[in-house]
Amino acid sequence: MRVIRTEIFFDNVSHIGGGARRSARDNPGIGVAFFGGRVLDDFLSSMLLPDPQMVPKHDLRTVEKFLDLSLRGVESSLRYTYSKYLLEPIRNPEQVRLLLNAEIVVEESPPHWEIFKALVSKSPSIAIGTYAGMELAGSMPQLMVLTIPFGIIAVSSAVGISKALEAGLNKKVARVLGQRRQRQ
What we know:
This protein is α+β, with helices and mostly antiparallel strands. The protein has 7 helices and 8 strands.
């Protein structure tokens, strides 16, 4: 399976979390991975994320919060309802706005750019959770998974996307999309 990655890094991220990984503190950024393939309307995010938190349609505030926490290297705090980071306001509103308006490479043959915010608005399903291959490893980052008719998009800190791909996210997506195609 072909994976197209887009990564966006910033020099001026405020309020990096005390529990952030060193790599997030040294090089804060967001990673986006696009996996091409036809996604059916009844796709279940739980196939990739055990016990995902579903984001209500058009809930841009939760998406913004996820992007901010990912930039700060503390996106894993989303799984804890008592986390102090969930109570804080968005600390990097300018960077989050830039991310929402950033162009992300997707492939519909040929590859082209789409504004991230437009992909969020088109997505029938958005979920946040820990990738199924990583939930046992303590401080594994959270992923935000968006489904769109022509593929799946995974978003996290740049390091988080790298770790998820290293743990086999691309192979899992290929299996899930392949299984779905066989049932058609």
